[in-house]
């Protein structure tokens, strides 16, 4: 998905200094319209001033459930990416993906699409005509410096459900509950959907070197005893060997569990680009506007590509997370 804000903010990202976990930090989402009077509105929990990264996860949009007859569904014209991987995960609906390396694929509930932008890629995303309700998340992963100019790529995976005592997990990146995803990433990562039965509590073994984020989709969820409202994201610092997820509601609860070791590099993120300097971002924008072969061409999309927003007058510069 493109960040289609007309005036996207500069976001500088850097690792927060490590320390003993002091508790669970709650990140509240902000609503962002994706353009147009009938366009979707997403709930964005990353990046924000309180926290810009969880591991290498640098962007999290949570949307729906939206009635397509009212919202118009998703129709994101071809747009570029550099320096990141995009991760698409759905709860309902179907999205058609086309990209400039020739991939033409669909993502359905319980399936993951991972696209590597690297030195440059472009793609489109459109909900299918038979989609009546659209509900899911769009996530971005920052590429480390040594891999940020890697070749563009696309991967698709359908994880099998893993039974938990009181729930179920689908591991789309990394390892959890004895299951490991085959999808390639450039830093250690965890990405999993976890569902909890009514009244259930599940304690998961997690990597103590990871920081974790729990994005709540539905249910009365507590993370290590701390309540997290739907659309909220609970952050935990490295040092935990387990995470306990509890569902206090009478229906099934659903969360996404994200994790990774603290990302030790400063980043500049603007529009659909993740880089290290203002000049790198400005060059990518110029290449896109000039139709450079760097981003290739998306075949089969019936319309024009997205123009790049205007860069801010000030120089883009990296920022660090607030000190603990």
TrEMBL record:
Domain Pirin N-terminal: start-end pairs: 41-141
GO MF entry, a single one: metal ion binding
Keyword Glycoprotein: no
Cofactor note: Binds 1 Fe cation per subunit.
Keyword field: Iron, Metal-binding
Binding site for Fe cation: 79, 81, 123, 125
Keyword Membrane among record annotations: no
Cofactor (UniProt): Fe cation
Region (Disordered): 1-20, 299-324
InterPro entries listed in its UniProt record: Pirin, Pirin_C_dom, Pirin_N_dom, RmlC-like_jellyroll, RmlC_Cupin_sf
Pfam families xref list: Pirin, Pirin_C
Domain Pirin C-terminal: 192-291
Family that this chain belongs to: Belongs to the pirin family.
Record's protein name: Pirin family protein
